[in-house]
Amino acid sequence: MKIPSGLITALQNANKTLVLTGAGMSAESGVPTFRDAQSGLWSKFRPEELATPEAFRKHPKLVWDWYDDRRNNIGRINPHAGHDALVELEQYFESLLLVTQNVDGLHQQAGSRDVIELHGNIMLSVCSETGKVIENSWIESNPGRPPVSPHHPRGLARPGVVWFGESLPADAMNRAMTAASHCDVCFSIGTSTLVQPAASLPLMALNSGACVIEINPASTPLSELATFSLQATAAEALTAINTKLASCK
């Protein structure tokens, strides 16, 4: 695909870059979106019935089994060329902070070094009482559904994700907002830019004078505001950007 020369110039002049990714990024690898995960045995449940602290307190086994099924499916999925391209992009900047709304860990699997997971990581388990991470070895040796927690006598293992009704991790969000206010370039990739507070990050970057590059096959509320809006998949657009940057070395 054709990449605007002004976009390449902005990247060549940038020192600090912020990347925001959403569900579309993971969907390219085959990860079902949150609502698409309601298939098969789970089709009779709404996500909101399984993704709240209240649901876990009332039906811990049901919630644990749903997330265990999702984990097993995600465990068979690999990063795509767009994930790999973001890793390659790191070489061009003083810093590249990747902020994701996805919980699958594919960015880290691809090799991205500085990742903020706003909604947590589905592949991790934490204590329902303390929030402390529970090692996989404990989960494997305590096969309850869910296993008990080693961190609290009343605790159970729960998925390490942010549920409806829970706040995003304050430190992570504050760092993301600071980066948005100080970056030279901000990518918004595969996100509808409808879910707050993540949707505010590209707007903060715009207001601070950054070049905002949207990559999404469909138009979003950000499309008309972005400096550049590329209607393409992440794999297609990011690979083309890397190819162009490499040719300009």
Shape descriptor: elongated
Could you tell me the number of beta strands?
Answer: 9
CATH superfamily caption of the largest domain = TPP-binding domain
Q: What is the H-and-E element order?
A: HEHHHHEHEEEHEHEHEEH
CATH fold field value of the largest domain: Rossmann fold
List keywords for this structure.
249 residues, alpha/beta, Rossmann fold, SIR2/SIRT2 'Small Domain', six-stranded parallel sheet, three-stranded antiparallel sheet, 9 strands, 36% helix
Task: Give me a quick take on this structure.
The protein has 2 domains: 5-31 and 79-119 and 167-247, Rossmann fold (3-Layer(aba) Sandwich), CATH 3.40.50.1220; 40-76 and 127-161, SIR2/SIRT2 'Small Domain'. Helix 5 (81-89) packs parallel to helix 10 (234-247).
Could you characterize what this model shows?
The structure is a single chain. This protein has 249 residues and is α/β, with parallel strands linked by helices. 36% of the residues lie in helices and 17% in strands. The strands form 2 sheets. The chain has a 6-stranded parallel β-sheet with strand order 3-2-1-7-8-9, sandwiched between helices. It has a 3-stranded antiparallel β-sheet with strand order 5-4-6. The chain is built from 10 helices and 9 strands. The protein folds into 2 domains: 149 residues, TPP-binding domain (Rossmann fold); 72 residues, SIR2/SIRT2 'Small Domain' (2-Layer Sandwich).
